[in-house]
Amino acid sequence: MAVIELKIPNLGESISNVTFSKWLKPNGSQVAMDEPLCEIETEKANQELSADSAGTLTWVAKEGEDLNVGAVFAKIDTSASGAAPAAAPAATKTEPAAPAAPAQLASSGSANYATGTPSPAAAKILAEGNVDPSNVSGTGRDGRITKDDAQKAVSNAPAAPAATPSAPAAAAPAPAAPKPAAPAVAFSRNDRREKMTRMRRTIAKRLVSAKNNTAMLTTFNEVDMSGVMAFREKYQEAFVKKYGIKLGFMSIFAKACAKVLLEMPEVNAFIDGDDIVYHDYADISIAISTPSGLVVPPIKNVESLNFADVENKLKELAGKARDGKLSLDEMSGGTFTITNGGVFGSFMSTPIINEPQSAILGMHAIKDRPVVVNGEIVIRPMMYLALSYDHRIIDGSTSVTFLVKVKNLIEDPVSLLLDI
Q1: For residue 92, what pLDDT is reported?
Q2: What is the pTM of this model?
Q3: Which residues are catalytic?
């Protein structure tokens, strides 16, 4: 009997242990090489672990268990890998052809088991895009089809023509009516205890650390959104036509902050011991709410991107965050953070610094309010802005000046485009 042990891999310098979230394959089941076996949760993101070999799976780790890097989480009996698999059900017309088995590929001469075989992520993308893996050239190691190969193949695949039915389609059965919610029990005294997720525990530690280890203050201002709203309305149609994505407020705020950050480098810096580390670039972390908690993946070099680049990157990161697919690299870094509580209706708040950064900008809900303009009371769409900052490195005058500069760029977006 040949049994191999599967261990928790090294996931980064800052990660020494993980939480074993759930098994994706039953105990004792037959698994193929590179088939996803389980999900683990790190302090930054969730990740799937795959089989290193084909064979019979034996569970070692338990769901919800905390494991150190290098700990054994499963065993695979490779002597059972040659057993004939159970007959698969006939494929439907919409299902892509299955990729060639490793043994078939190995017999072709120069190719090996990896040649033409998609990775788990690539296989999922190809299946969803109805693309046959045999028509995709792999650029990964030993000809493996990577996620990038799959995405390119799906994007380049011709759209399938819509089939013309020869007879009226049968009406789909009506979905079952949802079960009514159980009525609340009057005067209930029930409690329940649930273990905090690793991400929630990490968020809690970081927030407490930021409160305890920084001299955090918040300064406020308000911005008239009339100019930027008119700007978006005027150019939105042309922007979508050219770039295929809408121009949102976040990209405009990100570009405004990036410009001012390079003008005021202390706001873009952080303290490291007795040193101050300055950055000649603006990697802006965007707070994204997910079912597991708040994540802040950075958009790198915002100062060098155009509005469409920022919008596309934000859309990509938000989608991955909500699907739990952010990589550790995508979660790391950032020199400044923007959070938008306004999407949830927040009128005003004091955001907490995202350590080791030194400042965070809070956006809020846009509300029509009476303001005085040129001696007259008018109704304008107004937003409160909040800048929380570490007073150890950023002076009060600096924080106020930063916020005023951002306010002026938002109220006159043409000056942002002209870089004046």
Answers
A1: 43
A2: 0.62
A3: 391, 395
